[in-house]
Amino acid sequence: ISKTIKNPNIDVKKCFKIKTNVIQIKNIKENEKVGYGLLFKAHTNCKVATIPIGYDDGIGNNHINRRVSINNKIYPVVGEVSMCMMNVLVDDKVKVGDIVNIISDDITLGEIARLNNTSFHNTLVNIGKNLNKVYIKNNKIVYEEKLSWEEVKWA
After folding, report:
1. Do residues 102 and 111 make contact, with C-beta atoms less than 8 angstroms apart?
2. In Å, how far are 20, 77, 136, 145 from 150, measured between CA atoms?
3. pTM surpassing 0.85?
4. Is 136 strand, coil or helix?
5. Dihedral, CA atoms, 45, 104, 97, 26, nearest 10 degrees?
6. Is 114 helix (H, G, I), strand (E, B) or coil?
7. What is the mean pLDDT of residues 19-25?
């Protein structure tokens, strides 16, 4: 029997994170529409960052209440999540190349599962078939698994 039955307060650490980078930022004018299906309509002039991750990467396509973390700040996803990209409403602090946390300390796998009305387990098995993987032990990269057209290298 699991020890957690008597004491559920165990020290569990997250086993993975999903990160990507901002690849584009566009200034959007009031009333312009953005994204797959043009579902987001700007109510004021704003900035939208494009990030290269989408539902084909296993994170689902529900965009309602979805958020990401950039530079330790939470930003909302706007418009429909497409197959390999999504758009994020950002401010002037966000720059092309900034790291975007999809699943991290701020945004959990459980949150992604709830957004897509599915289980934690179903979400976990669907994530990452198209993503590069970096294995870290004691804060050092021990192995990198890259997409098939790239070289796989041992650290």
Report:
1. no
2. 17, 30, 20, 9
3. no
4. strand
5. -20
6. helix
7. 95
